[in-house]
Amino acid sequence: MLVLAVCSLKGGVGKTSVTLGLASGAHARGLRTLVVDLDPQGDVTTGLAVAEEPSTTLADALEDPRAKVVRSAVVPSGWSWRGADGAQVPLDVLTGGPALAARERPDASEKALLALSRALAKAEGYELVLLDCPPHLGALTRSGLAASDRALIVAEPGLFAVNAADRALGAVHDVRGSLNPRLQPLGVVVNRFRSSLAEHRYRVEELQSMFGPLVLSPVLPERSVLQRAQGATVPIHEYPGGRDLARAFDAILDRALRAPHGR
Ligand SMILES: Nc1ncnc2c1ncn2[C@@H]1O[C@H](COP(=O)(O)OP(=O)(O)OP(=O)(O)O)[C@@H](O)[C@H]1O
Ligand SMILES: [Mg+2]
User: Fold this and answer.
1) With contact defined as beta carbons under 8 Å apart, do 169 and 184 qualify?
2) φ, ψ at 74 (rounded to 5°)
3) How far apart are CA 18 and CA 5, in angstroms?
4) Ligand 1 neighbourhood includes 11 CB (under 6 angstroms)
């Protein structure tokens, strides 16, 4: 099982979109996948067309990470029954929601920060676990990093997002040195890239000079089809016109699955 946190210390750069794109790619290749919604906004739960949110949620599983509590917070996504060959491909969601906000405490104990790691140890049978993190370095993002093998940092090609990517890599380094020695950065993915904009090209070069091979290739282009697919809650791999984005997500997924991870 590979646990991959998708994070950035900046809002609106595309964490949820990248999580959904990777979930779509994992679904298309038939990987047993669990998506964990660590953001109280609940966007990835919405994007995965969860029909009915359970009364037990991730907030309960973090409070009491026993197997039966974790299992009752997991629901099938609305994508689960759409395997290309008609086969059932489980794509499940550990639903988040507003109750998670109460765990966003600055004084969170080490036990609280490790609760997600303990909860995921009870979520058996998945090959891939994707964590959609909230946009800041609070207890939820740190508990996500503490539970992960790899962290994927999402950055837009703009000054502020470049700074945030730098801070996010620093946070990965800190968590590796404290809560989770197995954590490694998978890389920085540039999202919403527009090749016609000199500013975007400049910022990608800047990211490459700062982070070298950690900047993933290809970059993810800005495409309205992504918003249409999200609006229809359909995987980008199944949405007409989504092929170039789907290929880019496949390349990131290949890299994530290729990288050694110790479970
Ligand atoms: N490559 C892209 N092309 C077009 N639109 C995009 C792209 N990536 C993201 N978006 C759009 O940008 C908006 C913000 O994206 P998203 O919600 O994924 O960001 P986020 O980092 O998860 O935000 P938050 O910090 O609030 O969790 C959404 O409307 C999404 O559809
Ligand atoms: Mg989000």
Assistant:
1) no
2) -100, 130
3) 11
4) yes
Rounded to whole angstroms, how far apart are CA atoms 195 and 218? Answer: 12
Q: Is the CB of 192 under 6 A from ligand 1?
A: yes
Band of pLDDT at residue 263, cut at 50, 70 and 90? low
Higher per-residue pLDDT: 106 or 109: 109
Note the pLDDT of residue 87.
Answer: 66
Nearest atom within ligand 1 for CA of residue 223? 3
Pocket of ligand 1 contains residue 12 by CB under 6 Å: yes
Note the Cα 213 to chain centre separation in Å: 20
Q: What is the rounded average pLDDT for all residues in the chain?
A: 93
> What pTM value is reported for the model?
0.96
Q: Is 163 in the pocket of ligand 1 (CB under 6 A)?
A: no
Please state, in angstroms and as integers, the Cα–Cα distance from residue 186 to each residue in 56, 81, 234, 260, following that order. 31, 30, 26, 11
> Looking at the chain, how many residues does it have?
263
Looking from the CA of residue 134, the nearest atom of ligand 1 is 27
Q: Is 15 in the pocket of ligand 1 (CB under 6 A)?
A: yes
Tell me: the pLDDT tens digits for 206-219?
999 999 999 999 99
- Which of 7, 13, 17, 104 should be mutated for ligand 1, with most atoms under 8 A from CB? 17
